[in-house]
Design brief:
InterPro entries: AB_hydrolase_fold, Peptidase_S10. One of its GO terms (biological process) is proteolysis. With about 500 residues, this protein is α/β, with parallel strands linked by helices. It has 15 helices and 14 strands. A hairpin with a 5-residue loop joins β2 and β3. The protein is globular.
Length: about 500
């Protein structure tokens, strides 16, 4: 009896120790699995490595560990000619999950053709992945995904700010490229949303502090990149997005509604540039007749009433637009993808209760990623996979990332830029993405290496099945176009 009690006591003690252990990330780890996929009708074998790699401080001590997933095509012998794409998402505070399992990677989460969640949760092959033309690594910054700070004495400011983020991630990429022996490869940075701020700064940092030169940068749904657009420009630039959204929801007059979107938007853009911005510069001194004339035209293009536009002095905030456009139908529209509709507690108010687009995406992505990492990549950990992690306060001072990117392009004749935008994205709208390009290169001497593509979807344009195929093909062609012929010199 005493022996039985002793054994039970030991068992309880062991269980207690087991369950009281702190959940920690492994500073360094890697697990590789092998797979194959068919892309554009061709078989592509590949390996997938899920693992962690440290961030070091100036004394060589690990202070954080970043989780990554690295996909390599395995039937390619010459890595020197094989492009490498380094992929980040945004937030700040977002994991790389979005483009990883819904855009460029070899797997897609289960969802319908418009990006809505479906069950059973899980993943399937992505027949449009760019893995046929490039290897890809998806990186989760500190406190996103499974990435964590491992040195509690390190100041959070080391990671959480525009320039701190650029600095430590550039160091991490330098280590990764060295360990994987990819210095000779053509290299590309791709970022989505705040990830565009990140990679625009990183390409300059890597080029000038690590002497690592890139062939291309891809900005998916870009931020403002530190480019000034205050005052009338900031307010006026949203009108083309308003028009696209109102057109989608069939809220425009029949003569506009019957136009194709590709015909309507240039008309709205011309009005914005040539009439609206110059008039709004006058502020309160704008003639009343002219103000009413502009409000009438804005109402036609936006689907809102002339009355509410005048009440906002022509400068209608995006929050109000998302609440107002379909108010009479009892619906709101999404911020990040305005094709999505939502229901609020009450019809009155200045802003929606929530973003129905983001809610749907969280529903779709979180179960699929947790399933995929453990069951397909065979990477096991008790850590929570943070779709969005604690990274605030975020230091936004000193954001010159648009200029950083311009400078890197000016210094490197091989460096090309592709920008991708969704017409229904209200968070990082398509017209401001065009404005970025115009202001980033005032001389116009880089525009032959800059390209912009628009898609009939939102912030994550690839969630729409038709755009998933088109946008991946645009990246594929961009990579092929920006990879120079053997022996071609980098010179002007």
């Amino acid at each position: 009896m005493k022996k039985t009690i002793l054994m039970l006591s030991l068992l309880i003690s062991v269980q207690f120790v087991s369950f009281s252990q702190e959940r920690q990330i492994e500073v360094e780890s890697a697990n590789t699995t092998n797979h194959e996929i068919t892309i554009n009708g061709k078989r592509v074998p590949y390996s997938a490595t899920a693992g962690t790699q440290p961030v070091w401080n100036e004394d060589g001590k690990p202070i954080a560990s970043l989780f990554y997933t690295y996909y390599e095509r395995t039937d390619v012998s010459d890595k020197a000619t094989r492009p490498l794409v380094i992929s980040f998402n945004g937030g700040p505070g977002s994991a790389s999950i979005w483009m990883h399992i819904a855009y460029t990677g070899p797997v897609l989460l289960n969802m319908d053709d418009e990006g809505n969640p479906t069950q059973p949760y899980g993943t399937r092959s992505n027949p449009h992945s760019i893995l046929d033309v490039a290897d890809i690594v998806y990186v989760d910054p500190v406190n996103t995904g499974y990435s964590r700070i491992v040195d509690k004495e390190t100041d959070r400011k080391k990671f959480f700010g525009v320039n701190a983020d650029i600095e430590y991630l550039s160091d991490w990429v330098n280590t990764f490229v060295t360990r994987q022996n990819r210095w000779a490869s053509p290299k590309y940075l791709i970022g989505e949303s705040y990830g565009t701020t990140r990679v625009a700064g990183m390409v300059n940092r890597l080029q000038n502090s690590h002497w690592m030169f890139f062939n291309g940068v891809i900005l998916v749904s870009p931020t403002g990149l530190g480019i000034d657009r205050g005052g009338p420009v900031s307010a006026a630039n949203y009108l083309p997005y308003y028009a696209a959204t109102a057109w989608f929801h069939e809220m425009l007059d029949s003569d506009l509604q019957n136009q194709d979107l590709d015909d309507l938007l240039p008309e709205v853009e011309e009005f914005t540039i040539n009439e609206l911005i110059p008039a709004m510069v006058k502020g309160g001194y704008l003639e009343e007749d002219r103000k009413k004339e502009l409000a009438e035209k804005m109402a036609r293009y936006s689907g809102m009433s002339e009355k509410v536009i005048l009440e906002h002095n022509l400068a209608v905030p995006t929050n109000f637009f998302w609440k107002e456009l379909m108010r009479e139908e009892g619906l709101t529209i999404g911020r990040l993808d305005s094709r999505y509709r939502g229901i609020d507690r009450q019809g009155s108010g200045e802003r929606p209760d929530h973003d129905p687009a983001l809610t749907a995406w969280n529903h779709a992505f979180a179960p699929a990623m947790n399933y995929y990492v453990r069951n397909v990549l065979k990477y096991e950990t008790d850590l929570t996979y943070n779709l969005f992690g604690p990274v605030h306060p975020w230091d936004r001072s000193g954001d010159r990332t648009g200029e950083n990117l311009r400078s890197a392009m000016a210094q490197n004749p091989f460096l090309h830029l592709l920008v991708q935008s969704g017409y229904y994205d209200g968070g990082t709208d398509y017209f401001n993405a065009k404005y970025n390009l115009w202001q980033m290169d005032p001389s116009g001497k880089l525009k032959d290496r800059m390209d912009w593509k628009g898609y009939r979807s939102g912030h994550m344009m690839y969630l729409r099945a038709e755009d998933l195929e088109t946008s991946n093909e645009d990246i594929r062609q961009f990579i092929l176009k920006s990879t120079p012929e053997k022996g071609a010199p980098a010179r002007y």
